[in-house]
Amino acid sequence: MAYSVPHVDGEPDPEFGRSESRGWPMWEVFVRQRRGMSHVHAGSLHAPDAETALQHARDVYTRRVEGVSVWVVPSSAIVASDPDEADAFFEAIEKPYRAATYYEIPDEVGQM
Amino acid sequence: MTTISERTSPAERFQAIIDADEKVEPSDWMPEGYRKTLIRQIAQHAHSEVIGMQPEGNWITRAPTLERKAILIAKVQDEAGHGLYLYSAAETLGVTRDELVELLHTGRQKYSSIFNYPTLTWADIGAIGWLVDGAAITNQVMLTRTSYGPYARAMVRICKEESFHQRQGYEIMLRLCNGTPEQKAMAQDAVNRWWWPALMMFGPHDSESTHTSQSMEWKIKRISNDDLRQHFVDMTVPQAEYLGLTLPDPELRWNPERGHYDFGEIDWDEFWRVVNGHGPMNRDRLEHKIRAWEDGEWVRDAAAAYAEKQQARRAASRTGG
Fold this sequence. Notes:
By secondary structure, chain A is an alpha+beta fold. Helix content of chain A is 14%, strand content 19%. Chain A has two helices and three strands. Chain A is extended. Chain B has helices spanning 10-19, 32-51, 53-57, 66-91, 97-105, 122-143, 149-177, 181-200, 212-217, 225-243, 268-278, 282-295, 297-320, and strands at 253-255, 260-262. Chain B has a two-stranded antiparallel sheet with strand order 1-2. In chain B, a hairpin with a 4-residue loop joins strand 1 (253-255) and strand 2. The longest helix of chain B is centred in the middle third of the chain and has 29 residues, at 149-177.
């Protein structure tokens, strides 16, 4: 179900990010849809420990047999690249000769 | 042509993402207003899913057959799942789950007014699936194209599951309408009570909706309240005709010039009354939610204690060699 509730006159705008309590740790969930495919990120959830995280992952992300295998990883264990440094980090854009379409093959040669 | 990341200022990069119809992701810079608008909307959406379990949960013990009971349990479980997807999406914006729960429990964040109406008969379960979930799908299909990545992804997942919700509701109505005259009357009564609240789910008229234009510019919203409502009416009228039910609006009629159904005016006094907390079930819904949270405290404590004990054991076995 869904929908936003309209603003009421004088509705206060709550401040966020002030809470000390972080609650249970967060886990990232990866689901293998079927054999032969990789585990793909499905979403995240909170759980007190790994075993409970796995059970919650099953209940939250595979209620319709969407998977044959599930991984859970503590979100704090993820190391991510910096989006602001993306240009310098992903330099492949500068090397078009790495793409198959860079090379011109005459039509007579056929499919290659 | 410059790519999005080549633009220098963060604000320019943000605008370029929006203009290019790409998705904003949690690690991107975003205007404070965009972040706050999203937290508010996603949190309300999450709260709606969670509170939405109550009106239907009311009928689990009284479902007419074992199959209907199993279906209803599965549907209510889906709503819980949808709440969890959405809370996770909100948390990517720098707000904690505990804060969101507290904001709901203290009434500082709202949930959709539709859940402040009671479910009086079994036919209400059919009407909710058909009309309320139908209205929700209309809204949520639009939101799969929203500009914030985590919200859009949650919507894709949710939309896949909502289709079951609407179809099971319509099937309940169909069964009742093909049943005894009493059953059909029950279905008609449910539609009489749910039709207008379902139309109210789309919110105030565009002309009254002050925050809509900014949300549209940021592409959080992609279609206006009135356009979504019209789409829902056009889709639903033929479905009601098939059931042989009358929608409770004497002004409802096909307008060949517009190519749409015309329909009557919503009772906006009722709308604002319920938004402001004076609907038939506002107090019950929140009290029940808080009670469930408090009753569950020992479970949360036990799970935390168990996790702590396991961790201590593992640490001990590592140092113990």
